[in-house]
Every structure is written in C-alpha cells, then in structure tokens.
Amino acid sequence: MSQPKRIAFQKFTNAMRKLSVEVNDTEICKRLDILMATSKDDLPLAQVNQLLADPKSFDPRAIPEPYTQYVRHFIYMVKRNGRLPSESRVSFGDGEDENHSRSKADSLAKKSAIPGKKTAPKKASKKK
C-alpha cells in the first residue's frame, strides 16, 4: 500500500524548509518528516493554509498535537527571518533569493562578531 499524498503536510514542510537558516531548523524539519511518515493522517488543509497566509496571528493550538510544537517553531522562523516563505520562490535563475540568504547570513555573522576586537595572525611554529 502506498503512502497518501498528504498535501497539507507537504505545504507545511516545504514552507519550513524555505525558512531554515540554522542547523536547528533543519533538524526540526527532519523530526517533522519522521513524525509524518509514521502518521496515517494529514494535517488539516484549511488550517495549514491559514497558517501559511498569516503565521503571526495564527494560534498554534489550532493544529492538533504533536504538531503544535512544529507550528510554534515555524512562526518563530517567520518572525526571526522577517518574511514569509514564498510559494513561487525559485532556487535557481536570477539569484535574488541566494543573494538575500547571503546578506542575511552576513548580517548574522556581523552581529555575532565582537566589535573592535581584532585577532592577531597565527605565528608559524619553528621546528628544530
């Protein structure tokens, strides 16, 4: 017997993957995939569509357990990234998304760096 298509699940996981920028995000997506692979049911399509349309005002409790925690993380990712995942986003072509991802990663790296601190170059060790 083949697996059902699970359209709502696919929409939700695709949206989560598009927003993933940290290792933690990727791991959470993997756990969600495993959970859905063992489930017989799909997520409620109307609620997933509502979540994707307006995640900031969506109540995570509208999605049944054990998926609520994944919905909460998705909402966190939307707020953290400052944008919604676009269904029409293309991973190739004009490179706009790639440049956006790079600038996001660059700004995160700059924020994590200590301002004014310079590191000295490593000295070559002398062997006798």
Structure description:
The protein has helices at 7-19, 23-38, 45-53, 68-81, 96-112. The protein is mostly helical and 128 residues long. Helix 1 runs parallel beside helix 3 (45-53).
Helix content: 40-55%
Let me know the number of strands: 0
Q: State Rg.
A: 20 Å
User: What is the string of helix and strand elements?
Assistant: HHHHH
Helix/strand class = mainly alpha
Uncertain residue ranges: 87-118
Principal-axis shape equals globular
Q: Give the strand content.
A: under 5%
Main β sheet profile: none
Average pLDDT over all residues: 75
In short:
The chain is mainly alpha-helical and 128 residues long.
Keywords, please?
128 residues; mainly alpha; single chain
Map the helices and strands.
Layout: H1 7-19, H2 23-38, H3 45-53, H4 68-81, H5 96-112
